[in-house]
Amino acid sequence: MIKRIHWFYHLLSLLLTGFALLFFGVFILDLYPEWGINRNPSLAANKALLINMALLLLFGLQHSVMARTSFKSRLKKWIPANLERTSFNFISALALIILLYFWQGIDGQVWYFGGPASRAIMYFFFGLGLFFTAMGIWSIKGADLLGHIQFKHGEHQNEVPFQAPFIYRVVRHPIYFGTLTILWAHPVLTFSRFLFALGLTAYMLIGIYYEEKDLLRRYGKAYRFYQSRVPMLIPGIQI
User: Fold this and answer.
1) pLDDT band for position 149 (50/70/90)?
2) For residues 58 and 25, what is the distance between their CA atoms, to the nearest angstrom?
3) What is the Cα gyration radius of the chain?
4) Which carries the bigger pLDDT value, residue 32 or residue 181?
């Protein structure tokens, strides 16, 4: 009976994560005006700005806190170890859905590129972002990222030595690089999109800082050597 409940929870987490990612796609591409990033404003700009900043802060705090090794260790005292990633994904999906659902549209533009050449450049970088994101997920196995491997096999997969598969030999954080490129590479950057991209950029940079500290503690010299050879966030630019 307990095993069935665990399976139900895990499947619910997978479904919710899938829905959240689908919602994110509709939102960022503005495919449906009422649920897109540039939805019509319903509040005064100052109120909308405060709500959006609070939503971004909630999303960032949830991810940053739950992704830390110390929090994971505490969490495993309360839930089975093989449900740790499942729980992270479940709550992260809820946080993302809340962010997207309650997002407030704000009028105004930061930039506008109307020429065919400039728009083509923007769309090229948007496609590049999609490529790096997809390859980053594929390189570390999507099932692992979704917690499916941990759920089925427990913690033993975490005992392997440090590895840098495929795209991770080009940049240390390809999923972050790809996502940031997707967020910023638009020929029409509205203020609403600018605020969303700026908030997630700040969250990712903070997340990278703490993630690198965790990886150094875990892998030591192997990860420090990797840092010296591979750029952190932008391919070809060592920071």
Assistant:
1) low
2) 20
3) 19
4) 181
Q: Give yes or no for a contact between 208 and 214, defined as CB atoms under 8 angstroms apart.
A: no
pLDDT for the residue numbered 153: 62
End-to-end Cα separation, the chain, in angstroms: 51
Distance (Å, rounded) from C-alpha 221 to C-alpha 129? 30
Q: Which two tokens stand for residue 109?
A: 């533009």
Nearest by Cα to 15 from 206, 193, 146, 122: 146
- Encoded tokens for 105: 């549209």
Domain definitions of the chain by residue range: 2-229
Distances, alpha carbon 209 to alpha carbons 136, 173, 217, in Å = 18, 11, 13
Averaged pLDDT, 177-186: 94
Contacts of 131 (CB under 8 A, 6+ apart): 178
**Distance of alpha carbon 160 from alpha carbon 151, whole angstroms:** 17
Q: Rounded to whole angstroms, how far apart are CA atoms 100 and 94? A: 10
Cβ of 90: how many Cβ atoms within 10 Å? Answer: 21
Which tokens hold the place of 238? Answer: 């060592």
Give the predicted TM-score (pTM) of the model: 0.86
Helix %, strand %, coil % for the chain, to 5?
Answer: 70, 5, 25
pLDDT of residue 8: 82
Here the tokens at position 121 are: 């450049």
Residue range 99-141, pLDDT digits in tens:
999 999 999 999 999 888 999 999 999 999 999 999 998 887 6
195 DSSP β-pair partners: none
Pair 16, 74: CB distance under 8 Å: no
